[in-house]
Amino acid sequence: MKYLSIILVFCAFNLQAQLLTEASNFTQKDSLRGGLRFERTCFNVLHYDLDVQINPDDKYISGSNTITFKILETTQKIQLDLYKNLTIDSIVSKNQQLKFERIHNAVFIEFEDEIKKGETQKVEVFYRGKPTEAKRAPWDGGFDFSKDHQGNHFIGVAVQGDGASLWYPNKDHLSDEPDNGANIKVSVPNGLMNVSNGRLIEKIPQENNYTKWHWEVTQPINNYNITVNIGKYVNFKDQYKDLDLDYYVLEDHLEIAKVHFEQVHEMMDCFYDKFGEYPFVEDSFKLVETPYLGMEHQSCVAYGNQYNFGYMGNDLSGTGKGLDWDFIIIHESAHEWFGNSVSVADIADLWIHEGFTTYAEGVFIECKNGYNDAMDYLYGIRRNIENKRPLIGTYGVNHSGPGDIYYKGANMINTLRSIVNDDELWWKTLKNFAESFKHQITNTNEVIDFFNRELEHDYSSFFDQYLNYKDIPVLQIKKKGRNKIQMKWKAHAKQFEMPIFVSFIDENKVYQINLDRNWTTTNLKMKDLQKLRIDNYTSYFDIEYLDEE
């Protein structure tokens, strides 16, 4: 069951005071959106049946969502969510209209009688209105009502962070995905197609010159991953092993897409090897052209990179190593493993989604062009790291970490690989992580426990430093006496320890020095410093030379 009946704790690493201070800056609206009060934890969503009509000319949506759920604790009231700019006409259960109260974007529904633990129940929420338009999708949530260059409607929606309740009623919390998937039925004007998650079940002509496109997802799915894509699409198909590949692109992009999307096979070869089988074979894999750059919509990856290599033709690393593959295809597809399959219970832990996915970019480069190119790329993306906030956000208020969850997250993971210093063990552990947590909802503590167990070493203080403090560790070096060299880590995390790897310019041998926060007198001599090479290329830390005390 993809539901965690848990109350999230602030953090395992002595940051309670800091987080309580941050929490004081949040409002009731934030708590209603991100919190796990009884009206949310008392039930588990089993299925969504979304049936809506979208009028592109008026930028208007209307319809209903039937929500099937199981009661975990006897209750008479539950919380759903829908942005307040959308009107709820009625909420119906067993042919009876239910009372409801709206507080900000939360919807509290009251039943006539208590629903007992173990019972299964349905509610159908009828709603309508003009949904929020994104100013710059996908960085802000909402619909992108665009036109293609031939003047046809070209519409998409991306709502990560802002939440799926921006456009349809649901239990809008990452801790609860519909166990049995969803039906997504979207009616659009004739001549246009809607593409959503999963597989196309049927297209149904409507009386009002609309066509209903019925898609079905059989696997659990993040609420923000449920999507619509409306356009004058054409479809072509491909196959990778037992995985069906479907591509939906604008008509005049068909030929370039057939060539450009061939890199999906190379990507799948790599990810199958390193992360295991594609997690949603039953629901297929799709790339769908969108008016915005991209998003990891499960089994329906949004693609808007305009058939460029790199990130809109640029290399985020500045090294040139990101220019012979399409960033959006690789990054957003990697989310199928990390984010869509391995999911987090609270957006505060979003580093798990984005850190592992950004690291997967380097993994793909290593599969494609070798280890050195991958390390160059991962080192290069450090230029995007700001180190202004910890990677973990504040729990219970829908607050994620900073943009560093991408690039710093990836470099933290690569640092862990470096200090493990055993590639056979590393790749085995990474694949086991993706497969063990397949279709699971997790959190930071569980992930740390997993890597500690699988790597047979306690890396808790390592994760503590990189996740819970904005600063990276600093290797401090100073002279001791006439010839000796001392080293230690300057770090916030208690009990912090991490090895460093050194070599000399005229030698091929690499030496490991184990260090913690206490000064360690090394075997190095002062003369060694002129020829010494310290590896902070594959490991992410700073170096500081101090004067002798």
What key phrases describe this protein's structure?
549 residues, alpha+beta, Neutral Protease, domain 2, 12 helices, 23% helix, globular
- Low-confidence residue ranges: 1-23
Major beta-sheet overview: 8 strands, mixed
Radius of gyration: 25 Å
Helix content: 10-25%
Could you walk me through the main structural features you see in this protein, from its secondary elements to its overall organization?
The protein has 549 residues and is an alpha+beta fold. Among the domains are: 342-468, Orthogonal Bundle (Neutral Protease, domain 2); 474-546, Immunoglobulin-like (Sandwich), CATH 2.60.40. 23% of the residues lie in helices and 33% in strands. It is built from 12 helices and 29 strands. An 8-stranded mixed β-sheet has the order 5-4-8-2-1-11-14-13. A 5-stranded mixed β-sheet has the order 16-17-18-20-19, with helices on one face. Strands 9-10-15-12 form a 4-stranded antiparallel β-sheet, with no helix packed on it. The protein is globular and about 90 Å long.
Summarize the structure.
This protein is an alpha+beta fold and 549 residues long.
Spell out the blueprint of helices and strands.
Blueprint (H helix, E strand, L loop, with lengths): L15 H8 L4 H7 L3 H4 L1 E13 L4 E12 L3 E7 L5 E7 L2 E2 L1 E5 L2 E10 L4 E10 L12 E6 L5 E6 L23 E8 L3 E3 L3 E7 L4 E8 L11 E3 L1 E8 L2 E8 L3 H7 L2 H13 L9 E5 L4 E2 L5 E3 L23 H8 L7 E3 L6 H19 L1 H10 L23 H17 L2 H14 L3 E3 L1 H12 L4 H9 L5 E7 L3 E7 L6 E8 L5 E7 L3 E6 L6 E3 L7 E5 L3
Parallel strand pairs: 1-11, 17-18, 18-20, 21-22, 23-29
Antiparallel strand pairs: 1-2, 2-8, 3-7, 4-5, 4-8, 6-7, 9-10, 10-15, 11-14, 12-15, 13-14, 16-17, 19-20, 23-24, 24-27, 25-26, 25-28
Helix pairs in contact: 5-7, 6-7, 7-8, 7-9, 9-12, 10-11
